[in-house]
Each structure stands twice: as structure tokens, then as C-alpha cells.
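The instructor's notes for this session suggest beginning with a concrete chain rather than abstract definitions. Hand out the sequence below and ask the class to guess, before any prediction is shown, which regions might be ordered.
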Amino acid sequence: MASPARATGTAAAPESEGADAKGESLPARPSVGPPHPVGDERAEPGSLPDWALLAITAAVCLPIAMLGYGTDLDIGDVRATGQLIRDADYFPSRTPGVPVFETIVAVFDPVGHFAINALTAAAAGAAVVGIARIVRRLGHPNGDLVALAFLASPVTLVAATSTTDFIWAVAFFVWAALFHLRDKLLPAVVLFALAIGCRSSTSLLIVSFLVADGWDRDRRVRCLQTFAGIVPVAILLYVPSYLAFDRTLNFLAHSDGWRGFANNSSRFLYKNCVATGGAFILVALTFVPALWRSLRRWRHDRLVRIAALGFLATEMLFLQLPWKLAHLLPALLMLVLWLGATDRNRRPWMIVLIVAVALNGVIAFRPFTPDRPDQSASADFQPVFMYGLLLNDVRCRARYMDRDPAPLENPQALDSWFCSLEPVRGPTVLGPDQTDADLLGE
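After discussion, reveal the predicted structure:
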């Protein structure tokens, strides 16, 4: 007689050395709680359905989305590129370009900032629903709370309410991954390519995802098919950038973010701490043993592989380019997925995690200020409690919302950006030999 786990197709079947010896593939197991059937994306009894996740996202994001375009320093250039597209021309807002998002801005910017920001909030809602579905599909419980842990981060909320591409790339990636796991090749390929078209660095996350899924022998052909489909579509999206640079590959050039191991690793650690907050770090430390234990299920648990490999890949990229806090959004996504794959994935613990993540948006502790903004070689210990990342961003947006974001060559373009960085480095004070142009490498 078949066991209940095998009869229902759940991920709760115990690991069996005998099965391993025969080469049988075992389904992934949920870490704790009632077994969730592998492949079943429906919400468990007592958890939040998709419409509730969308309602929560809208309630949190839409009021903030009304407060101007946002504080990101690239918004002015993205809008300028949008104007070029409306004039049947093109030059990327920054290399190598973000053609998908620039096109979205070109279409909706004439309506006003709220139109773009509301669509960005909708993309955040889609990402939240997709995260919950991925967790459930891969046999783990509490997908709704894992998704809300991602949404609760102030880094997510700032990105989800601004005219920026970060959350769009995440949303396209999440739903592409979901369609890939459903074996729907065409939508997976198109959405993965759109994610790359929003942020080219998403390609690293996609590769890590396909490697993790292809770890199972029976998934390798599907992963190769998906990868083979992504490449030509993604290349087509960047043809306008290629043409804009006189049919050369100069559009692939980017700023060199490496300033030495000590400098990069210091900024890497500091900005990771600032982005997550002290409360989250303390709670996450209690998950470390569970994260380690989850690696024992590497062969049989796709969520563990996807999350752990993705977290490593995205953090290594940030070590190379430790610039904006929003660049950590893919790493945050992978981290909460990994936490959801552990035996600590219980509703009380996940609620504590959500509160800890959200607290960083309300109050922040800034221990250091740099000696030279964006060119720091050292920092002064000047501890202070202040507005958290989200409240500070709202404060800055309210202050500058009546001023349209300007291209970077305009000195006023950086005012709201400097304001948004106060929880990270304090008020920006130029050194005696610095100008605004020296501060664009943040």
C-alpha cells in the first residue's frame, strides 16, 4: 500500500537511502507543517489567498506612489529616453540600457508619475503573488508569509512605488520561473527575456535558477530549451542600444565598481546591513542553523537549490558593484525563499520575520558616516537613530515631489537622491576637491 506522501504527491516523503541507491528521484519536502502537494499552487487553509496579497500590496504602495516620481538618481535620464522613444529615436538612459522599462515610461509618462508608479505597484503585486505560488508549487507551506516578508522590506517598497526598473525585473523573473516550473516554455522564455530587458544583471539570476532546476537529470533538457529560447529574444531587445552606439559593442561598457577588496567588501557588508536592518539581522541569525540543515536536502529540494544558488550569485554581483541598496532586491528575494525552505518556516516565526523586516523602514540605526561620499576610504563612528529607509524616502519625496526629476547633468538632479541616502551615510557634504560629478558612482 502506498504511503500517504506518495499517494498524495506531497513533498513530505522521508528521505530513503535505498531509493537513492536505485537512482530514484525523491520529491522535495516541506520543512515543517502540513504537507503541501508538490505542484499545487493553491493557498493552504488559513493562509492568505492571492486577492488578499494583491490588496495588501495596493494598500501599502498606492498612497506612496502618489508622491512624485521617486528619489532614484536615474529617473530623469529614463524619462529623457522615454521622450526619445516617443519621438521615434533612441539612446539608452545608461549603458547597456533598460529597453523594456524605458518603453513603459515612454508610453505612460505623458499621463503622469502616478500612472507609472501605479503600474510599478501592480508589478510588485504580481511579484508577491508569484513568490507565494512558487513556494507552494515546490512543496513548502506559508507561501503567503514568505511573499509578505519580501514586500515588507523598505527596499522593496521604495522600488515598488517609484519610476524605477528594479521591481519590474523581479516580477518578470518570478513569473517566468513559475511558467518554467509549469513546463510552459513560450511564456517562460518571453518573461525571462523581458526581465533581462528591464535589468541586464537579471541574466545572472536566471542562469543560477536554470542551473538549480537542471540539477535534476530529468529537468536538464527543459532548462536547456528555456536558455536557448531566452538568448535570441534578449539579444533582440538590445539591438536599439547596439544601433545607438554606431553598431559597436560599446553599449556594453559600464562603470568599474571595483576599488579594491577592502573597500568593496566594506561597502558590501555595510550596505547589506543597512538594507536589512538590525532587527532583521537578529531574527535571521536564529535561522542560520535551519539554513545549514536545509542544504542536506540539496538533491531533493528544488527551492533550496534555487534560493541558495541565487542568493550566492546575486550577492557576489553586489560585491563587485556595491552601489544602490535596490541592487540587493534579487538577493533579498532569494534569501526569503531560502528561509521559506527551512524547518523554521512556521507561521509565528515568519510573522516575526515580517515585523523585523518592516521595522527597518520605520527606524534606522546609522553607525558610520563616510569621510568622502562615494569615494570613501574610511568612516567616522557617529552612531545615531533616525528615520528608517521607507519613512525617510517618503519625507524626501514629499520635499521634492513638485520638482520634476532632471537628467544627471543638471546639478539639481541629485538633491532628492542625497536626501534618500541619509539613513545610509548622513547628510552629503562635499569634500574640498569634490563636485557633484564625483558622486555619480554610488
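Then share the key points. Confidence is low (pLDDT under 50) at residues 1-35, 431-442. The longest strand covers residues 379-387.
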